[in-house]
Write a structure and sequence with these properties.
The structure holds two protein chains of two kinds. Helix content of chain A is 65%, strand content 7%. Chain A is α+β, with helices and mostly antiparallel strands. Chain A has a five-stranded mixed beta sheet. In chain A, helix 10 packs antiparallel against helix 11. Chain A is globular, with a radius of gyration of 29 Å. By secondary structure, chain B is α/β, with parallel strands linked by helices. Chain B contains five helices and five strands, in the order E-H-E-H-E-H-E-H-E-H. In chain B, helix 2 runs parallel beside helix 3. The N and C termini of chain B lie close together (9 Å). The chains are: A alpha+beta, B alpha/beta.
């Protein structure tokens, strides 16, 4: 990441301070490498090393120097374990420490000059991976057997947890791509999320997934640098890539198999999204250097001719490349794009709703409405504000205004429901399920703010309904259900609340099973479970969210995906209700005050 | 009256970053003082009129937790509110800090908004 100009002074200070600390630690580490038995200097090395990487991590976080954070965080983690006696400082970890110090010694001055840590990406990734791998493997042969054998599990759990969180975040942002694309800060944040994912995959050498995330990140970077997408709906490809990562993760968890099916197709599809200027293509092909491109651009700009010459022509004239080379890279780009399109059509077919334009529901509350209606509304408001003071009856104008407002809302609403349909469709295709999706009563959501606020929780519930609630066609036929699962999104106004529910006729959640599990784990006494029906049990559990039933709650949350929804609902001052019956289905109802 | 703030962190870069975040958050405060560890912090606390302390946890000589513990025993300074600033994700250590009287925590790297949310109520 590039350092913002306003941070240059801090960057300078950061680099100097860190290098000073490096100078303090380095001699001790060198001594330890030469004389591994020098136990007297171990505490010095551990303490100062920890301090060094701890403080680099902290400041690099603020300066958004992500490539410095990785190794610093990993080394801090390692030395913290050593400091607290969980790990001993092995020869291997000392040499990694030396390597990390060298990395900082050489990398920090570079960052200061470049005002960016991008050039460190590769070495940082490799170093971080090496450090964390040593932690991971350390469990097997360290002298502190008992304590250290926890390390693998300790590394794996947070890794899986964090990866899952990052994937959910990335996915939600890509679902909202239409709306976030204009907000470069938000795209930058998304790109950082992808970067974290990529680093996480690098740690465990899950190279396929790492490559996909890197390709996604670099696509966004290019978009931010002003390149254009060649397709109107790049998010289809983004989402499909995220889905590929997600299913590969599942496959990895279940079978330790980290291979992405159709990796090259996914990469081609991403590659095919962008059209690149000829200069970039030639640089990437290694035919010219960026400096030459700059010179050629100068020549092109200063040219007096009425028809500006193409950059390729200028370069040929300058004798930097041949005509054939220019043709070759252009041809390559073209065929890549064709491959991308082929890959796209091979990877999935997209339903008709996907093609429609959508507009509501982003956080920034921007909507697209009919220009004529808007003009008429402004006219009416003008009229009212002029005439209003005269005491005339302006009810007709108010009525018309109200009618127009409702019409606009309906337009916004239909794009909102289109988005829902699209997501359900996509998820159904991905999880290979047939879904009959019904939307009812959405008119109740007359205000656009409700829609914006509800978008995230609803998308999540719908996705969850398809992925976890509904069974596959085979499973449904086996138990005598209709082939396609039914998913209903229903909104209705009840007094001063809006109830929005997502219901499926899928496998349901077996509360008795969950409760039995809780009893078995001594989370709740049996007498709290036995007398109740599944429904009563669920209500009790959901209403009394005390620490004793926390484990049960978590289990139910996992099954229904409520954890994520609950988070979004905090803003809405709403409540969640849930009904579920094994074999019959699950319904989650969100109850919100309708006047905020 | 504008509040005086003491920033305690062993990294001078971090102290600068924190004081700049305070400015960016648009909070109205008086003077900013700095200390490199818990011991220095105690000296500044007793000498100057400090209203709020922002302290790192991991520091040499006397860390943030020890600072809280020590501060409790000094009547002149014990009521000055302390906010912990740390990259620690562990709830334990933040929990420990809170049980020792820390009034809140900010996780690095933080944004001006986060500073506002945590520090605003104290100003």
């Amino acid at each position: 990441m590039n350092v913002a100009a306003e941070n240059f002074k801090i960057l300078e200070e950061f680099v100097h301070e860190s290098l000073e600390m490096v100078q303090r630690v380095a001699p001790f580490v060198r001594a330890l490498i030469q004389e591994p038995d020098r136990e007297d200097i171990l505490p010095e090395v551990t303490k100062n090393g920890f301090r060094l990487f701890h403080s680099i991590k902290g400041s690099a976080g603020f300066l958004q120097l992500d490539h410095l954070i990785g190794p610093a965080e990993a080394m801090e983690y390692l030395l913290d374990r050593v400091r607290s006696g969980v790990l001993s400082l092995t020869a291997q970890s000392v040499s990694l420490l030396a390597e990390a110090i060298r990395f900082m010694e050489q990398g920090l001055p570079l960052v200061l000059v470049e005002k960016s840590d991008d050039k460190l990406a590769a070495s940082a990734g490799a170093l971080t991976a090496a450090i964390l791998r040593s932690l991971y493997e350390g469990g097997k042969d360290s002298c502190l057997e008992g304590a250290v054998s926890l390390v693998p599990a300790e590394m794996r759990e947070p890794f899986l947890w964090e990866t899952d969180n990052l994937l959910v975040t990335a996915e939600q942002e890509f679902v909202l791509w239409d709306f976030i694309a204009v907000d470069h800060q938000r795209v930058k944040d998304l790109s950082r999320t992808l970067h974290r994912l990529q680093q996480n995959f690098a740690l465990f050498e899950l190279t396929d997934m790492e490559r996909l995330c890197r390709a996604l990140e670099s696509t966004l970077t290019r978009y931010l640098q002003g390149e254009f997408f060649q397709t109107e709906y790049p998010e289809r490809i983004f989402l499909r890539t995220i889905d590929a990562v997600r299913s590969t993760m599942n496959q990895f968890i279940e079978a330790e198999d980290p291979t992405v099916t159709g990796l090259e197709h996914h990469l081609d599809a991403l590659q095919g999204l962008m059209r690149q200027p000829i200069g970039t293509l030639l640089v990437e092909a290694g035919l010219v250097d960026p400096q030459t491109i700059q010179e050629a651009l100068e020549v092109q700009r200063s040219s007096q001719e009425t028809m500006p010459r193409r950059l390729g022509e200028v370069l040929v004239e300058m004798g930097q490349v041949t005509q054939e080379q220019v043709h070759h890279v252009l041809h390559e780009q073209h065929s890549k794009r064709m491959r991308g399109e082929q890959a796209e059509s091979m990877l999935a077919d997209i339903g008709p709703s996907a093609g429609q334009s959508t507009s509501a529901l982003a956080d920034n509350h921007k909507v697209r409405i009919d220009g004529q209606k808007f003009a008429r509304m402004v006219e009416l408001i003008e009229h009212l504000s002029v005439e209003g003071a005269s005491g005339k009856d302006f009810l007709p104008q108010l009525r018309e205004l109200q009618g127009l407002a409702h019409a606009c809302n309906r337009e916004v609403l239909s794009s909102f429901t289109d988005r829902m349909k699209r997501v359900v469709h996509d998820v159904a295709v991905q999880s290979n399920k047939k879904v009959h999706f019904v939307i009812e009563g959405m008119d109740a959501l007359l205000n656009q703010r409700d829609m914006a606020l509800l978008a995230d929780p609803l998308l999540h519930l719908l996705r969850n309904g398809v992925e976890h609630g509904l069974e596959t066609t085979e499973q449904r036929m086996q138990v005598g259900k209709r082939k396609s699962g039914r998913l209903t999104l229903l909104a209705l106004r009840q007094g001063d609340e809006i109830w929005v529910s997502v219901e499926d006729d899928g496998r349901g959640i077996d509360m008795h099973k969950i409760a039995a599990l809780a009893v078995e784990q001594k989370l709740i006494p049996p007498e709290q479970v036995a007398p109740y029906s599944s429904r009563e049990l669920m209500e009790r559990l959901f209403q009394s969210r005390t620490s004793t039933v926390e484990g049960v709650w978590e289990e139910a949350e996992r099954s229904s995906g409520l954890a994520v929804v609950g988070k979004s609902l905090q803003h809405l001052q709403g409540a969640i209700e849930m009904w579920s019956h094994p074999g019959k289905g699950t319904r989650v109802t969100l109850k919100l005050p309708w006047k905020h | 009256m504008a509040k005086n703030i003491l920033i305690v962190d062993d990294s001078s870069t971090m102290r600068k970053i924190i004081s700049r975040s305070l400015r960016q958050a648009g909070l109205d405060f008086g003077d900013i003082y700095e200390a490199g560890d818990g011991q220095e912090a105690l000296v500044v606390l007793e000498k100057e009129s400090i209203d709020i302390v922002l302290s790192d946890i991991n520091m040499p000589n006397m860390n943030g937790i020890e600072l809280l513990r020590e501060k409790r025993n000094r009547p002149a300074v014990k009521d000055i509110p302390v906010l912990m600033i740390s990259t620690e994700t562990g709830e334990d250590i933040i929990g420990e800090a809170k049980s020792l009287g820390a009034v809140g925590a900010l996780k690095k790297p933080f944004t001006p908004d986060a500073v506002n949310a945590v520090l605003g109520p104290l100003m």
